[in-house]
Amino acid sequence: MKARHWPRIPLGLRFFMLYLILVLLTTYVISNTMLREIKPTIRQATEETLVDMANLLAVVVAEDLAQGTTSNSRLVELMKVYGQREVDAAIWGIEKTNMSHRIYLTDHRGIVVADSWQQDVGTDFSQWNDVYLTLRGEYGARSSATDPDDPLSTVMHVAAPVIYQDQIIGSLTVAKANRSVQPFIEHSQQRIVKWLALLSLLALLIGALIAWRINSAVSKLADYARKMGQGEQADKPQFRVFYEYRQLSDALEQMRNQLDGKVYIEQYVETLTHELKSPLSGIKGASELLQMPLSDDKRHQFAHNIERETQRMQQLIDRLLELARLEQLPTLNTRQLVSVAPLLHQCEQILAHRVLQKSVTFTTTQARISAVNGDPFLLQQALLNLLENALDFVPSHGDISLSVTSAGNTCSFSIYNTGPAIPDYALPRLCERFYSLPRANGAKSTGLGLNFVERVAKLHQGKLTINNRAQGVEATLTIKTP
User: Is pLDDT at 257 greater than 50 in this prediction?
Assistant: First the structure.
């Protein structure tokens, strides 16, 4: 039975899913708690206001109630006017059009002697808790529903004792319908839900951004490690915010440098040993033959073979040292303006004797570009390598042309030579180290020239392309000229 594999979920997505659960849970708990607490909190604040208002009015009406003149009391008249008063107010966007408070006054028996609504004057309210408890010196308050089927029909009643000469002679109750404060409760709940939704959305967006950054950072590090494992050139990923990833990136780069140094030495020792076998074998064979009796012509021939193979070994070592130095450079240390015309002239002068030997027609064409930005020595060496390759494959009395063109912020050096086309199987391998095609004269190449040119192109943020053209081959070195 095959083992069951769980789906692979990226780290950033896993982090976001956990973060999403935490945000939703936190939002639910906070919203549920706040919404549940708003209603009693507002009613408690309302009750505290009613207590202050009832005690104030109880003090004002005490003397009239004690003297039995409440029917002619100025306060009672004002209470009547107050109960019938209309208002037009907008409180935090909520319209208020009428008075929501009711005020009634009872004597020491609990009989209503004044009512702002003129509704229950003469009625016995002694059975209601607000009056009953207040007349006995306790805190009197009650909440009664006018409609048993409507929870919003409840009315808060808060009473204060009317005291005269240290005796409770009555009670004054201030009542307020809970329905009047319900719009404020709903308004507050809506604002809380709105802000919690906005903050939750913002938190989720921030979490998504962080999760994306984490996933992106891990992907960059994984890609960097993969390229390291495959031996490819790769730039170290940079991290500005997540310094932990920067530390990991630095550690990977340090490990890469250490491994590269070890592998680099192993590869160079192996390749150098392999490439030196052939000339050493030729030198050894020629030297053994020279120890035997030979004619002057044969002795001269074997001595020439030793000199040729020695030069080949020297050339191989020099090229390897140049290539090794270039491969250790991540970028060019310095750049300077290099005049194009003197650069082409120098290359032409250096190779003039080989051009004459093969009777080759050599032409140069320069577009409207007087100078490029780069390393003059490396550019000259790269062009010489390409021109020497062209001379190796161009037939006698053939043509070689060197043209310089520019486009945008790039400059291209194109070298064309007549001669046989490059086989299709060899085109993708031309820049491999130690890979070379046989020359018409049988001479052997180090196979390092084009690899050197490609490295120079990369250091100048450019590229090397080699393609077959009509009756010949064209190699183009393109560099960036910032």
Answer: yes
**How does the average pLDDT of the chain come out, rounded?**
78
pLDDT of residue 232: 61
Phi-psi region of 312 (alpha: psi -120 to 50; beta: other; left: phi over 0): alpha
* Distance of alpha carbon 417 from alpha carbon 170, whole angstroms: 122
| Of 155, 154, 109, nearest in space to 134 by CA | 109
In angstroms, the CA 97 to CA 405 distance is 85
Per-residue 3-state assignment (H helix, E strand, C coil) for 365-389: EECCCCEEEECHHHHHHHHHHHHHH
Instruction: Report residue 281 CA to chain centroid gap.
Output: 59
Contact between 58 and 162 under an 8 Å Cβ cutoff? The reply is yes
Do 343 and 461 fall into the same domain? yes
Provide the number of structural domains found in the chain.
Answer: 3
What is the model's pLDDT at position 20? 82
* Residue 193 domain flag: no
Residue 454 above 50 pLDDT? yes
CATH number at residue 157: 3.30.450.20
| CATH number of the domain within which 262 lies | 1.10.287.130
Judge if 454 and 473 occupy the same domain: yes
394 and 322 within one domain: no
Euclidean distance between CA atoms 294 and 246, whole angstroms: 70
- Evaluate whether residue 126 is within a structural domain: yes
pLDDT at 35 over 90: no
pLDDT at 67 over 80: yes
Q: Are residues 318 and 366 in the same domain?
A: no
Distance set, CA 94 to CA 39, 91, 156, 187, 285 (Å): 17, 5, 21, 9, 110
Name the phi and psi angles at 476, rounded to 5. Answer: -125, 120
Model pLDDT for residues 16-29, shown as the tens digit of each residue: 788 788 888 888 88
Closest CA to 419 of 347, 478, 475, 477: 475
The conformation of residue 137, written as its DSSP 8-state character, comes to: T
> What pLDDT score was predicted for residue 1?
46
Domain boundary among 188, 222, 249: 188
Q: Left, alpha or beta for 34 (phi > 0: left; psi -120 to 50: alpha)?
A: alpha
- pLDDT of residue 47 exceeding 90, the answer is no
CB of 327 closer than 8 Å to CB of 433: no
Q: Please name the residues in contact with 348: beta carbons below 8 A apart, sequence gap of 6 or more.
A: 355, 362, 364
User: Where in the sequence is the domain holding 240, given as residue range(s)?
Assistant: 235-328
